[in-house]
Amino acid sequence: MSGHVSPKSVYYSIFGALMVFTGITVAAAFVNLGALNFPVALAIAIIKATLVVLFFMHVKYSSRLTKLVVATSLFFLLILLAETFMDYATRGMAPPLPMLQ
Amino acid sequence: MSNAVAHADVHGGAHGHAAHHPKLQHHFETMEQQKEASTLGMWVFLLTEVLFFGGLFFAYMLYRIWYFDAFAEASRSLGIGLGAFNTAVLIGSSLTMALAVRAAQTSERKATVTWLILTIVLGCVFLGVKVVEYADKFEHHHVPGAHYIWAAEHAPGEGSAGAAASEAEHAAPAGGDLQRLTQIFFSLYFTMTGLHALHMIVGVGIMGVITWMAYKGRFDSSYYTPVEMAGLYWHFVDLVWIFLFPLLYLVERHT
Amino acid sequence: MLDTLKLPERHYLNNGHGLKSWLLTKDHKRIAIMYLISISVMFLLGGLFAGGVRLELMTPQGDLFLADTYNKYFTMHGVVMVFFFLIPSTPAVLGNFLIPPMIGAKDLAFPRINLLSLYIYWLGAAFFFYALFSGGVDTGWTFYTPFSSFASNTNVIPTALGAFISGFSSILTGLNFIVTIHRMRAPGLTWFRLPLFVWAHYATSLIQVLGTPVVAITIIMVFVERAFGFGIFDPSRGGDPVLFQHLFWFYSHPAVYIMILPALGVMSELVSTFSRKTIFGYSFVAFSSLAIAVFGFIVWAHHMFVAGISTYSALVFSFLSFSVAIPSAVKVFNWSATLYKGSISFETPMLYAYGFFGLFLIGGLTGLFLATLGTDIHLHDTYFVVAHFHYIMVGGAIMGYLGGLHFWWPKLVGRMYSEFASRISAILVFVGFNLTFFPQFVLGYMGMPRRYHAYPDEFQVLNVMSSAGAGVLGIGYMLPVIYFLWSLKRGEVAGPNPWGASGLEWQTQSPPLTENFTEQPVVHGEPYEYTPHVAREANLV
Amino acid sequence: MGSYGIPLFPEQASSFAANVDALYIFIVSVSAFFALAVTIAVVAFGIIYRRKHDGEVGARIEGNLPLELLWSIIPTMISMVMFGWGASAYFEMRTPPAEALQIYAVGKQWMWKFQHLEGQREINELHVPVGRPIKVTITSEDVIHSLYFPSFRTKMDAIPGRYTQLWFEPTKTGTYHIFCTEYCGTNHSGMIGSVVVMEPAAYQAWLAGGTTEGTLAQRGERLFTDLACNTCHLDTGKGRGPSLQNIVGKPVELADGTTTTVDEGYLRESIINSQAKIVKGYQPLMPAFQGLVSEDNLVALVEYIKTLSPTATTTQAPAAPAPPATAPTTNTPPVGEKK
Known about the structure:
The complex is a heterotetramer.
Chain A: H1 8-29, H2 37-56, H3 64-90, H4 97-100
Helix pairs in contact in A: 1-2
Chain B: E1 5-7, H1 31-66, H2 68-76, H3 80-105, H4 109-139, H5 161-169, H6 176-215, H7 225-249
Chain D: E1 2-3, E2 6-7, H1 17-48, H2 65-93, E3 101-108, E4 111-116, E5 121-123, E6 125-129, E7 134-140, E8 145-149, E9 154-158, E10 164-168, E11 174-180, E12 193-198, H3 200-208, H4 216-226, E13 251-253, E14 259-261, H5 264-272, H6 295-307, H7 323-326
Parallel strand pairs in D: 3-7, 6-12
Antiparallel strand pairs in D: 1-2, 3-4, 4-5, 7-10, 8-9, 8-11, 11-12, 13-14
Helix pairs in contact in D: 1-2, 4-6, 5-6
C-alpha cells in the first residue's frame, strides 16, 4: 500500500536547489542579456517546475499513466500556445501567391 | 451473450483472506485500486488546471511581446523584494508539505500535524504579503478601470485634441500610451495573481481539514491518500507561482 | 412468455424513497435520472426560445418581437441548448447510467464527485435562470468581445458565470469517466473488449477535461473586463478582441465533439445490436473516436477565417480541418459495412440509427464547405453554418441521444414504451428536422446572415418552410415525453435483455440493483459476440 | 438563378463568383455521391438482410484492413483537392491587385460608412465602377462587425482598433446586398445596405456630383494642420518628428533596432498609439490620439500621408510592387521580440 518514501535529504536538497534558482533568476533580471533575458527567466522557471513535479510531486516514482497525464497536459498546452501564436507571428505577411499559381 | 461472463466470488476468493480496510469504499475492490483511482483523478484535475492557467499565460505572452516597454515599465512598479520573499515562502511551504506527506507515509502523526500547520502558516504569510501588495496597488490607482492612473510624472495626455496637440508643442512627455497599455499588464497581473491567491485560499482551507484529520489520527502508512492528494494540489499552486514570479516581477529590471 | 415477466423485487429505484434518498444519493443511476429530468426541462426551455425565433422569421419584416427580444431569444436558445442540454446530454445521462454496468463496476470511481457535478450543474442553471428572469441576455452564445464586455447592456455576467459553473460540472463528469474507465474495469475486460460506447465516452471525457478549462479562463477574462473594467481584450487599451475568439474556439470547437462523440458511441451499439453482428473494424471505430478528439483540438480557427487571422494560419487551419473529416467518414463506412450480412430488425432505436445515418452524413459533408477556404469566406456566419451545425448537434447528437434513450429505456425503468408511438415520433423527428434545416443550406448560400431579426423579402419562402418544419420537429420531440411517462406505470415489463443485445449491462436485471451486479463479473470473450445459441437464449429470458 | 421559384444562388457579380460557385458545385457533387452511396448501401442492406426469424444472427465479419485503408485514403485525397482549390481561391481573395481603387469602410452600431478618395461619403450605400478592382479597408468604431457582399462572394470582419481589408472586382452592373454578418447588437439585421455597381462613365458622373469637402486626402491635409501634426513632421526631416515624405511601402528603422514596413496599419497605430513604434533617432514626444480622432478622420489622415508617397502603391498609380498593400491584414503590432 505504501508508495515510494523519499529520504528527507532529497526534499531538503530540492528545496535548496529551488532557492538557488530563485536567486539566480532575480539576479539575471538585473543583468542585461539582451534578447536572452526572457528565455533565461523561462528556462529557470521550467527547471524549477520540473524539480517540483519530479520530486515533490513524486512523478519520478509514479506509474506510467501518471507520467502520461503530465505529458498530455503539456502537449495540449503546447497546441494551444503554438497554434495561436502561429496566427500572430504571421499576420501582416503577404500571401505566398507565386507558390500556389 | 458476448463478453461471455463468469461470476467470480471476489470477496470469498482472491481477497477474502484480508479483512477490509476501514477506509475502503464499497465500490472499490481493493485499497490499491482506490488509491490508484484517487491519484489518477487528482492528476487529471491538475491537467485541467494547467490548461486553465495556459489561456492566461498565452494572453500574457502575446501582450508582453507587443507592448514590451509598457510591460517592463509596469513590472518595475512591483516590489521585487516582496515578490522574491513570497517566492521563498511558497517554496518553503512546498518543502513542509512534502515533509508532511512523508511523515504520513511513515505513520508519524505528530510530525504530520506539525508540518501541515507550518504549511498553513506559510500559506497565510504568502496571502498576507499579497494583501499588502494589493493595498499598495489600490493606493497608487494601479487597478485597471475608470480610476486607473499611471504614475504622476507620466501624466496622461487626456483632454481634447487641441490640448493634446498643444501639449505636443511643449514637447511634454506623453504618458497616454502607458496609461492605456500598462492597464493590460495590470489586468493580467490581477487576474493571474488573483486566481492564484484564490487557489491558495482554497488550499489553506483544504489543509485545515487535512490537519484536523491528521490530528485525529486518521492517517498512517496504510492510508494517507488525502494528505498526498492535498500535497499534489499544494505543489501545483506553488508551481504556478514559480512561473508568475518571473513573468510579472522580472520583465526587465536592468534599466 | 413476456407476460409472465415481473419487475425484480429489489432495484435501484425502490432502494430508498423520498426526496432525500434522491438528493443525497451516490448511485450513478439515480444521478443519471436526475440529470435526465434536468436536461429535459432545459431542452423544453431551449425549444421554446427556438420556437420564438422560428415564429419571428416567418415574415421578413421583423414584426412579431422587438429586435432586442429576438436577439435574446436566439442567445438564450444557444446558451441553454449548448451549455445546459447538449454538453451534458448523452454523457451525463446515458454515460453516467451505463458506463459502470458496461464495464462491470458497482459505480463510478468518485460517486460523491458525480453528485457534486449535478449540484454544480444546477447552480450554473440557477445563474442562468437569474439572468433570464432579470431580463435575459443578448450577446449570442459565443459572448464575443468587445460586444459582451462593453456594448451589451443585458445580463452578461450571470449568464457567463452560469456557463462557467456548468463547465465545472462537465469537467468533473469527464474526470470521473476517465478514472472509472482506467481503474474500474471488471477482470478480463481489456481495452479492446470495451463496448465502443465506452471508447466514445473516454474520448469525450478527454475533451471535457482538456478544453473546458480554457473556456473557463476565457469567460473569467470577459468577466473581469465587464465587472471590474479591466482590459484584456479591449481594443481601446491595446487589447486584441480576436484573442478572445482564439481562446473561445479552442474549447468551443472541440465542444462540438463533446456533443457528437457520445452519439457516435450510441450508434455503434445500435448498429451492432439490431443487426446482431459484431461491429466491422472494431479497432478502427475505437481509434477514430480518439482521433476525432485529438484532431478536434487543432482545427479551431476555421471559425475565424474572416476574423482577421493571418493568411498563413488560415491555410494551416483549413488543411488541418480536413483531418477531422477522415475519422468521421471511417466510422460511417464501418457502420454501413456492419449491416452487410447482418440480421437487421427495425425497432425504434434502429429507426433512430437510420435517421442518424442520413443526418450525420449531411451534417458531416456540409462541414467540408466550411473547412474549404474559398467557400467558407462566402458561407461564414450565414444560415449555411446554422444548418450545418444543427445537422451535427441536433440531427446527429439528439438523434443519437434519443436513439440511445429508446434503446436503454427498458434498462433505465424496466418497462417498454409503445413501439407504435415511438416509431411515429422517430419518423416525425427525421422528416421535421430535414424540413426545418435543409432549406437553411440554400438560404445560407443565397447569403442570408445568421442572427437576423428581419431579412430581405426574397428569403421568405425558404424561411416559411423552415418554420413549418420546426412545428413538425416540435411534435416529434414532444411525443417521447408522453409515451415515456406512460410507460413508467403501464409499459410492458421488459426483462433484462429485451433486444437480445450483447454487453454487460444487459446481463443484469432491469432496472438494475443499486450495486449493478450481484457478483463481480469476469469477462472472457470478445465484445459483440452473437451466436445462434445465445440469441435464442436472449429471447427466452 | 433558381429553380421552381426557389432561388439557389445569389447573383454572380464579381470576378470571384464563378470560381466559388464552381468549387461549391464540386463539393456538392462529391458530397452527393458519398451521401447517396452510403444511403443506398444502408437501405439495401436493411432490405436484403432483414431478420427472417427470431433466432437469426449476423455473419461474423470482424473487418477488412484493405477496405479500411481504401476508405481512409480516398476521402483524404478528395479532401486535399477541395483544400487546394479552396486555398487558391482564398489567396486570390486576399491579394488585391496593385491598381485597385481604394475605398474606406467604417462600421459602427448600426451602419456602414464608406469614404471615397474623391471625398464622397456614403452611409449604407456604396457606389463602385464595374470592371475595376476595388480594395476596401475596413475598421470599426465600436464592436466587431463583418462586411459581406453575397453577390461578390466575399466578406471580412471589421475589427475595432485595426484595419482589415477585402477586395473584389464587380463584373456586372446592378444593385446588390451589403450585410453585416457578425452579430453586433440590437439592430444587427438593420445594418444592411446596397452596393451599386455602375458603368465607369456613370460612376465618374456620380463622383462629380455633390461634395464640398474636397477629396479624402485634402480633408486629411486639413486635419493634419488642425491637429498641428505639421509643426513637428517637417518635410525637411529636421522637425521633432520624422518627415512623412515617401515613407509608405518602405522599411523604417525603429528605436529598438527592429525594422518594420510602413503601411496603413502602421500609420494608424502611429497616430493613435504613438509610443508603440518610435522611429530611430527621434524622441517619444508625440501625444497619443487614441479616442481623440474618429475612425473617419483617421482614414483621411492615413490617406493624406499615403499621397505624400507618390511612388508607393496608392490609389491611382499601378506602379511598384506593393508588399504592404497586399498584406492580408494590416493590423495590430506585428509579433517580434523587441528586447
